[in-house]
Amino acid sequence: MDWETFKNLRGSEKKAFFMRNGRIYHVVMAQQFDRPFLEEICNLTTRIRQIAKSNEGTKFLLGLLQGKRAMLYFTQPSTRTFLSFVSACQILGMQWAEVRDPSISSEMKGESPEDSVRTFSSYFDLIIMRHPEPQFAEKMAFLLNQTPRPVPIINGGSGPDQHPTQALLDIYTIHRSFEDHGGIDEKHIALVGDLKRGRTARSLAYLMKNYRDVKLYFVSPPELRMEEDLKNYLREKGVKFEEHDDLEEIIPLVDVVYMTRIQDEYDKEGESKLIPYERYHFKPEYLKILKPNAIIMHPLPRRDELPVEVDKDRRAVYWRQVRNGMWVRTALIAMIFGVDKKIWDY
Known about the structure:
Blueprint: H1 3-7, H2 11-14, E1 19-20, E2 23-24, H3 35-51, H4 55-62, E3 69-74, H5 80-91, E4 95-99, H6 113-123, E5 126-131, H7 136-144, E6 153-158, H8 164-177, E7 188-192, H9 199-207, E8 215-219, H10 228-237, E9 240-244, H11 247-250, E10 256-259, E11 295-297, H12 318-336, H13 340-345
Parallel strand pairs: 3-4, 3-5, 5-6, 7-8, 7-10, 8-9, 10-11
Antiparallel strand pairs: 1-2
């Protein structure tokens, strides 16, 4: 099978291709994750956090992947995703290297990104990448699987398409927030902002098929509505959703408000400047109508859509999200390399 054929398969048809010996290997799309996996990674993340609280536990974690090496190939700007993966590698004792600027790599000599990644696979045991091209991580996982030395690929963000590890840390954050309030089942979740180009909201929405009676509210300008492919997927999986353009009327109805910034890096001619995006800002007065046990999330970076005055409210969990990202990505790497059993046995 060639890449053109493979990329047009349904996500469910691709899932087995990203596994090895019944375990997760490549991490490229949110559709890979089923509920047992999500519960497993949430529990493993919590276990790692518990172990890391002591010096002895920290030393144990440091010894798990000594001798393994990771390449972070980030050709789009990143702070949280990049640093949380660096931290995850450090927690597990992995050495790491980075290529963040293609202008100082052989790509400036005409080398294709595909050949660059193939080169990384000769030196490293894991490749974590962020790339502006949709499906690029998936393509590289497919191509490396055809080589004598396949190594795991983790998608750290691919254009406006997917951000599966952000979805994992978001699920963990929601899971932890509602552990004593029925879990994620039956929750109402508002995804707010630039949903057309926001890969974090897309990836989180994909995961809602794994939970019972969840309802999604897509709140966005008409020009930035969620794409039809994702909505068709939700219809097929029986996930309820509504589309709205009034954020204030939705606030009292939901358990989770997931704010996002406008993704104007994908503008072609500055068209985002013509959209009245301030209508999709979370105003401090909305705190008065938000449910007492609701949470406010944001994948960050933020702009004016989430004012700093909201930070001090106990329902604002986006800084917790940031820290959760480090621990979830640590758990994910541990699972890929099969050291999760050692963690449970510790």
